[in-house]
Amino acid sequence: MDFEVFVLGTGGMQPLPRRFLNSALVRRKGEEFLFDAGEGTQVALKKLSIHWKKINRIFISHMHADHVTGLPGILMLSSQVERDTPLHIYGPSPLDEYIDANRKLLDMYINYDIIVHTVDKNEVIVDEDEFVIKTFELDHRKPCYGYSLIEKDRPGEFNKDKVISLGVPQGPLWGRLQKGEDIEVDGKIIRSADVMGAKRKGRKFSFVTDTTYKDDIAANVYNSDLLLIEGMFEHSLIEDAHEKKHLTMVEAATIAKDAEVLSAGFMHHSPRYIDRDLRALEKEGQEVYDKTFMCYDGMHFEIPLKD
User: Fold this and answer.
1) Active-site residue (options: 36, 66, 225, 297)
2) I need a surface site. Which of 44, 92, 182, 231 has the fewest CB within 10 A?
3) What contacts 199, CB < 8 A, 6 or more positions away?
4) Which of 256, 258, 250 is nearest to 285 (CA)?
């Protein structure tokens, strides 16, 4: 499987014995992307036997302690090997000051380049050949952002039999057709669109935490194959949730439903809830949208290719 998601921590505010603080990792075609780095992230990576050496990009939602206290350990851990690529870290200000201060005050030995990218608006922050990563503004007590990793559409299936029947010799011309180029053979134009099937939709992962309800969140995470979204409180505590700018399970499920996501997992749980409570709260969300579920530390998901 070339697209996997690992739930490293599901806790909010404080870690518990079986619940580390908020963090998730995406592994796509060997490259790893870390979303938030709460306390316990190193331990969670070890428990799941994840090769942290391949983490080249880290995305921080906001500058509250329960989302960044695991970051210094990750930075030091990465110095245990010779990295030949820089570590890119994305997040709102003052993320750069936080990293610089930790490096100085803790006298960190860092043997690789750290490149900090300040996130301050809705934009594409990573644009690669096969995917993009977009950020979008949330509504919390500090500047806070959600992230979506979106694969670009894949080419349709190549109709080999038709290409042969059109007299196109096997070789570089086939490759040009597969790349979307039209070619000429014996004075005849062969159109790529005539030998390629319809484009196949790419996959999408979204990460949303620490926000009050906003109508535009659904549009930003629309049609995600997997959405990890905070479910901080039961809905009877909605006034408390709004005061602290967090989501209830019902609100998180409403966003997932409006976004027509294929599946949505609740995380960033209040420490007031033990696992038995979470099972009851899961039902609150599922009554709104049956494609929601409760996340627990250590969960692993595979996102298959779409036909």
Assistant:
1) 66
2) 182
3) 153, 154, 155, 156
4) 250
pTM for the full model? 0.90
Phi then psi dihedrals of residue 63, to 5 deg: -95, 60
**Does 94 sit behind a cis peptide bond, omega within 30 degrees of 0 on the bond before it?**
yes
Q: What is the mean pLDDT of each run of 10 residues along the chain (307 residues)?
A: 94 89 95 94 92 90 95 87 87 96 92 94 95 97 97 84 82 82 83 81 96 96 98 92 94 98 96 90 95 96 90
Catalytic-residue membership of 66? yes
At residue 73's C-alpha, the angle toward residues 69 and 79, to 5°, is: 150
- Taking the domains of the chain in order of start, what are their residue ranges? 3-154+205-302, 160-195
Which two three-digit tokens encode residue 178? 């597969």
Q: Which fold has domain 3-154+205-302?
A: Metallo-beta-lactamase; Chain A (3.60.15)
Beta-bridge mates of residue 87:
114
Distance, in Å, from the CA atom of 301 to the CA atom of 307, rounded to the nearest integer, reads 19
